[in-house]
Design brief:
The protein is an alpha/beta fold. 39% of the residues lie in helices and 19% in strands. The chain folds into two domains: 120 residues, Rossmann fold (3-Layer(aba) Sandwich), CATH 3.40.50.10090; 140 residues, Rossmann fold (3-Layer(aba) Sandwich). This is Uroporphyrinogen-III synthase.
Length: 266
Amino acid sequence: MRLLVTRPQPQADAWVADLRAAGLDAAALPLIAIEGPADPEPVRALWQGLAAHRLLMFVSPAAVQWFFALRPTEARWPATCLAATPGPGTAQSLQAAGAPSGLTPQQILTPPSQASQFDSEHLWPVLAPLDWAGQRVAILGGGDQSDVKGRTWLAEQLRARGATVTPVLAYQRGPGTWQAPEQALARAALADPAAHQWLFSSSQAIDHLIAHHLPAWSLSVPDWAAHQALVTHPKIAEHARRAGFGHLVQTRPTLEAVVQARRTAA
């Protein structure tokens, strides 16, 4: 059975390489495209005012990538500012990207590696013991051209503790455009659902698949009840279930967990 990795690039290719190295048949079929913010000035302004912040929360590797891509040459990460991520993948990206500007591993807060999930709810116990009264926090996320989407729950927790929380659009998400190889892969998956399994790490990927990619190539929306999906969060599982996917396997969003889930299912 071929596993269809729907993460944005270059994450999709990296996951495919790791999954193949683990002995699985995997192929990249990105359902989300990432690009820089339409207006980079809020990110640049945040760099200039970084010393006034207690915490920057990076929601994904894409947030890390674009925040540091827009760093002014002279900007340095202050010792008084912490950084947070929802999971180890983003933390690894942050450590690599932040080191040249002075960010140390000791300043990065993330859920423990054994956490059942990697999300805001599991990050909060790490943040909650700190004093947030009067502190400034920025949440670096993605969305459309003007609005940051997601992480509202975490922002509410921080504001309830007295923090001033500002969302900053670090990157834009969209459906992107399939080329002929992706279209051919999608046709094969739709024609033979028993031989393919979708790997969803985002509810938005499901929406883009159904509302954008299939219509763009004049592909009929199938009866998803015959299709199989591997999902990395309970909320994504619920979204896939509402879309009609009939065979769902839920796992943690780590390479090891995904490999184990595939081998167990096989």
